[in-house]
Amino acid sequence: MKKRAISITLYVLAVLLLIGLVYYVTLPPISIYSGEFWTFFFFIDILVLVSYYVIGVISGKIYAEIIHDPSGHIHVNTDKSGKKPLFTKVVLILSAAVIVFLVIGGILSSQMFRAKTYSSLITVDDAQFAEDIRETEYVSDIALMDTASARIIGARTLGTLSDLVSQYNVSNDYTQIAMRSAIDDTAKPYKVAPLEYASFFKWLTNQSSGIPGYVKVDTVRFDAEFVRLEGSFIKYSPSAYLAKDLYRALRFEYPTAIFGSICFEVDDNGHPYWVASTMKPNAGLFGAMDVDTVITLDACTGETAEYKPSESPDWIDIVYYGTLICQKYDWYGMLRGGYLNSAFAQTNCVVTTDDFGYKIIGNDVYIFTGVTSTSNDEANIGFILANSRTGEYKFFSVPGAEEYSAMSAAEGSVQQYGYQASFPSLINVGGEATYIMVLKDASGIVKMYSMVNVRNYNIVVTSETQDDVFQKYKTALAQNGTKVDSATLVTEEIVIDEIIYITKSGETTVYIKSPGGVYGMAFTEDILFYEVGDTIKIAYTTKNDGSVTIISRIEE
Predict the structure, then answer these.
(1) Which string of DSSP letters, residue by residue, matches 300-338?
(2) Could you give the CA distance from residue 237 to residue 229 in angstroms, rounded to a whole number?
(3) How far apart are CA 369 and CA 33, in angstroms?
(4) C-alpha–C-alpha distance, residues 468 and 245, integer Å
(5) What value does the mean pLDDT take over residues 511-517?
(6) All residues at 6 or more sequence positions from 262 whose CB lies less than 8 Å from its CB, including other chains
(7) What is the mean pLDDT of residues 529-543?
(8) Please, are residues 359 and 386 in contact by the beta-carbon 8 Å criterion?
(9) Are 329 and 352 within 8 A, CB to CB?
(10) What pLDDT is stored for residue 550 in this prediction?
(11) Contact by Cβ (8 Å): 401, 452
(12) What is the Cα–Cα distance from 335 to 540, expressed in whole angstroms?
C-alpha cells in the first residue's frame, strides 16, 4: 500500500512537471475564450490519460486498474460488467463534455446567429473628401515606402556598423509610427524595428548587456538611421530566451490575457517599448474579437502598464492593427443587412480591398484602404480612414478605380523598367482625389513616384522627384480638361526666346526661355509646332526653389 502511494505521488509530480514544461514553452492564455487554451487543455488531457497507463504498466500492480493476468499479459482491469475503470471514465466524460461545450459555444458565436453583434462593433462617420483631406503640394505625412523596402535599407544601415553586424540582425517586423520632429513639432511617418540576437549563442554572449538599439526608417525621404541607445539597452525581445523572452514576460505578468498585435514602438523621446493589444470576444466564446486593453512593456526595464484604448498615451500608435481594422469594417459592410443577406442577395454589401496604407494626421497613425462591392468589379465606391490608436472610422465617398488598377496603370507607364508599385495612398490635389505611390526596382529600391487620378486612371504620371511628379500631374489634369485650383496658378503671356529638350530616364522635359525667365513643362507633341519668337499665354506655378512650371497653355 505504501509503495502504491509513493508511485501515485511520483506519477502526479511527473505529470505536473510535464504540464509546467509544456506551458512554459507554449504560453497559452488561461482563458476559456482562447482557442490556444483549449488546444492546451486537450493536449494535457491526453498527456494525463496516456501517462497514467504508461506509468501504471511500468510499475506493475501500482494501480488497481492495471493488472497482470496469469499468462503474464498486462491489461486494464474492469469490473464484472466489463466497464472501464473510474479514472478512465471520468477523463473521457470530461473530454466529451468539453467538446460539446465548445461546439455549441462556437455555433452560438458564429456570424449566422450574431450578425448584429459583428456589424455593430464600429461606428462609421461619413466625411467630405475635399473638406476633411487637406490639399497637398508635397507628401510629408504618408508612409510611401512599404515594409519590404524598409527592410532592405534597414539591413544596409546595420551592415555599415562593424561592431554590431556579426552579433545582431534587424527584425523583419517593422512598425509604422508617427514621431514628432524636434524642429517643427509636427509628427512624421517612420518605420521602426529593433535589432535581434543573431542566434542563441549570440544571445548567450550579449544577453547581460542587451540589444544596443533599433533602426528608424524615414518613409518619405527613403533613408534609415541606427538609433544607438544610451544607458540601458533592450533586454526584453522575441529573440531573447528564458525570462527575458518578450512573450514569456508578458504571459507571466498577464496570464489570462489574449494578445492580439504586439508591436515595437518608441515614444517621442526615442525610448523603446513593446505595445500589446489584448482581445476579448463580443459574441459568445470566440466571436467578434476586438481590442479590450493595451499593455506597454518597457523594452529595457520590463516594467508594464495597462490602459483602456481611450486612455492610452499619445505616443502609442498601433492599438488597432491594420488587419483588425479591415476585418471589423468587412463585418460591418457585409453583415449590417443580416447574415442571410450577406450569404445570398448581398444587397449593399461592401468589403475593403485586401491591403492598406498609412497616413499621419496630427499625432496619430491612420489606416487607409479602399471600399469596394463584393462583385470584384475593380472599382471602389470610396475609402476609409481609421485611427489605429482610437479605432475611429471615417468613410469618404470617392468612387473610382480601386488601388490595384491604379498600381497596374503606374507600372504600365514605365513597363520598360519592370518597376513594381507600392500600395498607394489617397491625397487631394486641387480638389481631385489622387493616388500616390512609389515604384520599386527588382531589388526593392524606390526609383520613382507615380500619381494616378482616382476617377480616371488613364491620367497617370511618373517622375523621379515629388516636386516634378506633382507638376506633371497638374499638367496632365489641365490637358484632360480638369480644372486645377486657380489660386495656385499665375497666368502670363510670354515670348519664346529658346526651346530646350532634356531627356532623363526616358522622360522628356521641355524648357522654354523667355525674357521673363525659364519655364519647364512635360513634353507634348504640339510643342513641336512652336518656334522662337512665338507668343504664348500660359498658366504656371512656382516651386519652392524659385523655378516655374507650366501647368497649361491657354489657347487664344
Answers:
(1) TT--EEEE-GGGS-TT---SS-HHHHHHHHHHHHHHTT-
(2) 15
(3) 30
(4) 48
(5) 85
(6) 246, 247, 250, 274, 275, 276, 277
(7) 78
(8) no
(9) yes
(10) 60
(11) yes
(12) 50
Collect contacts of 255-258 with beta carbons under 8 A, ≥24 apart: 255/29, 255/30, 256/29, 256/30, 256/31, 257/29, 257/31, 257/293, 257/295, 258/29, 258/31, 258/33, 258/34, 258/289
Q: Which residues pair with 333 in a beta bridge?
A: none
Global pTM exceeds 0.90: no
pLDDT tens string 239-296: 999 999 999 999 999 999 999 999 999 998 999 999 999 999 999 999 999 999 999 9
Percent of the chain whose pLDDT exceeds 90: 53
Helix, strand and coil content of the chain, in percent to the nearest 5, comes to: 30, 35, 35
124 vs 521, residue with greater confidence: 124
C-alpha cell at 414: 514605365
User: Which residues lie below 8 Å from residue 153, measured CB to CB, with a gap of 6+?
Assistant: 217, 222, 223, 224, 445
Please, which pLDDT band fits residue 32 given cuts at 50, 70 and 90? Answer: very high
How far apart (Å, rounded) are the C-alpha atoms in residues 503 and 281? 59
User: 377: which residues sit within 8 A by CB, 6+ positions away?
Assistant: none
The angle subtended at Cα 47 by Cα 46 and Cα 49, nearest 5°, is 65
Q: Cell digits for 490?
A: 499665375
Q: What is the pLDDT of residue 436?
A: 94
Q: Which residues contact 541 (CB under 8 A, 6 or more apart)?
A: 471, 474, 488, 489, 490, 548, 549, 551
DSSP calls for 35-78: HHHHHHHHHHHHHHHHHHHHHHHHTSTTSTTEEE-TTS-EEE--
Taking residues 216-227, report their average pLDDT.
92
Residues 451-468 as b/e (b if ≥16 CB within 10 A, e otherwise) read bbbbeebebbbbbeebbb
What is the pLDDT at residue 506? Answer: 57
Residues 6+ apart with CB under 8 A from 179: 187, 188, 190, 216, 266, 268
pLDDT digits (tens, 9 = 90+) for 388-432: 999 999 999 999 989 999 999 999 999 999 999 999 999 998 888
Q: In what order do the strands lie in the sheet with 498-504?
A: 490-495, 535-542, 548-554, 517-522, 507-514, 498-504
Task: Report pLDDT digits (tens) over 308-318.
Answer: 998 999 999 99
- Distance from C-alpha of 482 to C-alpha of 459, rounded to nearest angstrom: 10
SS3 labels along 95-130 = HHHHHHHHHHHHHHCCHHHHHHHHHCCCCEEEECHH
**Joined grid coordinates for residue 550:** 507650366
Give the DSSP letter of residue 198: S
Lowest mean pLDDT among 57-66, 115-124, 231-240, 484-493: 57-66
Q: Grid cell 534609415 — which residue? A: 224
Q: State yes or no: pLDDT of 15 exceeds 70.
A: yes
- Residue 368 CA, distance from chain mean position: 11
Torsion, CA 139, CA 140, CA 144, CA 150, rounded to 10: 160
Query: Within its chain, how far is the Cα of 480 from the centroid?
Result: 36
Residue 412 per-residue DSSP state? H
What is the pairing mode between strands 535-542 and 446-453?
Answer: unpaired
How many helices and strands (H and E) does the chain possess? Answer: 12, 29
